[in-house]
Amino acid sequence: MTVALDLSWRNCVKTWIDQNLEQGHSAESIIESMTTDGFDKDSATTAVYELLRGEIPSAYEYDPSPVSPDRVIHAHDRTIHALLRIEKPQLILFDNVLSADECDRIIELSEKRLVPSTTINPATGIFEQDETRASESCMFGLSEDSFIDNIDRRFSALMNRPLEFGEGLQVVRYRTGGQYLPHFDFAPPGDPGVIEHLSGGGQRAATLIVYLNDVEAGGGTSFPEAGISFSPRKGQAVYFRYSNNLGQLDAATIHAGLPVLAGEKWIINKWMRRYRVPR
């Protein structure tokens, strides 16, 4: 006889699932273990997927940021300065995240790997080109060589999240006229096509956008709910966090890559997930 999950079980079961996801166990193995222990499979699946999806509440609860509150932060191998902090939503502008030589090298390594950027179709979960995003991009495997490993470790230290919770670096080039219309970096939990992309690591929790060049004109990163935009400056970065420790998602982090009016814009996206990403 199987056991359905009622309200009296939810907190205990949620904590157990949460711990197993953080340890890197797959959603499928957790569901199988719960079913073996007597839980109804549909209820177990729902409980696991609810945690993976997160939720957008009517009132997001801002808890302390994991990032150091210090003005000067030693992140792995580099001293980084926090220039600006905003509490709601949680935004930080950093200086000196990458050296000029590191920026140039990442651009050089990326140029031959670029392909048209894609987004996830919310209905099907398939990656496809979309008119909301006009750019080219490429992905680096997490710590794929010693140079990239050092960058990944620096970013992980700065964001104060385990290296294993991070996705690989995404490098993006926007040519003149390129932009990314307002969007979330997390997967909207109501979209039917996203669960496949959440089963390994859960929702994204925070982003670091690192600017690799000075843009001739345009190309800022805009946060309309916060009423602020950041102009690209080589070596600087913008951090924002949109998943709290309850798994809630902050809709105030909607943002846009404004059109590049002259020249090109090169950036790195570094995304951290809520849980360990299986490799």
Automatic annotation (TrEMBL):
Reported cofactor(s): L-ascorbate
Entry keyword Mitochondrion: no
Pfam families: 2OG-FeII_Oxy_3
The keyword Iron belongs to this UniProt entry's keyword annotation: yes
Recorded superkingdom: Bacteria
UniProt keyword list: Dioxygenase, Iron, Metal-binding, Oxidoreductase, Vitamin C
GO molecular function: oxidoreductase activity
UniProt cross-references to PANTHER family, sorted A to Z: PROLYL 4-HYDROXYLASE ALPHA SUBUNIT, TRANSMEMBRANE PROLYL 4-HYDROXYLASE
Record-given protein name: 2OG-Fe(II) oxygenase
Gene source species: Nocardia fusca
